[in-house]
Amino acid sequence: DGGITQSPKYLFRKEGQNVTLSCEQNLNHDAMYWYRQDPGQGLRLIYYSQIVNDFQKGDIAEGYSVSREKKESFPLTVTSAQKNPTAFYLCASSIPGANYGYTFGSGTRLTVV
Amino acid sequence: DQQVKQNSPSLSVQEGRISILNCDYTNSMFDYFLWYKKYPAEGPTFLISISSIKDKNEDGRFTVFLNKSAKHLSLHIVPSQPGDSAVYFCAGSGSARQLTFGSGTQLTVLP
Fold first, then answer.
1. Of A102, B78, B84, B107, whose CB neighbour count within 10 A is largest?
2. Is B57 in CB contact (< 8 Å) with chain A?
3. How many CB atoms lie within 10 A of CB A102?
4. Predicted confidence (pLDDT) per residue in B63-95, tens digit
5. Residue A97 banded pLDDT, cuts 50, 70, 90
6. CB distance B44–A41 less than 8 Å?
7. Torsions phi, psi for B106 (to 5 deg)
């Protein structure tokens, strides 16, 4: 069964620590995305990658970093520089240029304690 | 600069009645629009889409209407069911096929 797996589902982090959220897909999609959802703010784009070894900043990239060493994987690191990291994080993938939209993972809820 | 706006954060509808969710956009380069449905603690799932060359697309209980001159689209759900209670996001897509999402509307269908 093809899909996107995000892990863990819930994550707690102490202030000042970096944490990495995992996103793996077996859909053979070239493009991958990271979004953040906050109440009343919808989905905001953090980073995206159209192809392996290349990625671009989205609208709210400050305090985050990513890598795209493999087509299947697009991990997101929330650094200590992110001032308000508590949120629900969503990973998505797509075929660039297709009208199919995105396939989303089930999300990771990050809470800073 | 919000390119896609959903001005109603919430909507309550009686079971069996019609739900109408609205979305406005400002980017004239969008040529494809999509609606996603999201349950709490889950990722959004694709619901229905429409190309900018059409003004209506229907799929079962779900119909999306596009008014290009007004830069407005709407999602109609008839009849509404309690299982339809979720957050609905509309999104616009341009030539790069990247999606720009609205802020979402929480639909509650009352039994």
1. A102
2. no
3. 29
4. 999 999 999 999 999 999 999 999 999 999 887
5. low
6. no
7. -80, 115
- Residue linked to tokens 């209980």: B61
Instruction: Give the span between the Cα atoms of A5 and A26, in whole angstroms.
Output: 9
CB spacing of B43 vs A92 below 8 angstroms: yes
Question: Is there a contact between A112 and A86 (Cβ–Cβ < 8 Å)?
Answer: yes
Is residue B101 within 8 A of residue B5, CB to CB? The reply is no
Contact A92 B9 (CB under 8 A): no
Best of B103, B105, B106 to substitute, by most chain A Cβ atoms within 10 angstroms, is: B103
Query: Environment class of residue B67 by beta-carbon count within 10 Å: exposed (0-12), middle (13-18) or buried (19+)?
Result: exposed
Contact residues on chain B for A98, CB-CB shorter than 8 A: 97
Distance in angstroms (rounded) separating the CA atoms of residues B82 and B89: 18
Dihedral of the alpha carbons of A80, A85, A89, A95, in degrees to the nearest 10 = -50
Q: What is the DSSP string of B27-49?
A: -TT--EEEEEEE-TTS--EEEEE
Cβ-nearest to B103 among A35, A41, A109: A41
Instruction: Residue B91: list chain A partners with CB under 8 A.
Output: 101
| A contact test, residue of B93, B99, B100 with most A CBs within 10 A | B99
On the question of a cis peptide bond just before residue A96, with omega within 30 degrees of 0, the verdict is no
Model pLDDT for residues A41-75, shown as the tens digit of each residue: 788 999 999 999 999 999 899 999 999 999 999 99
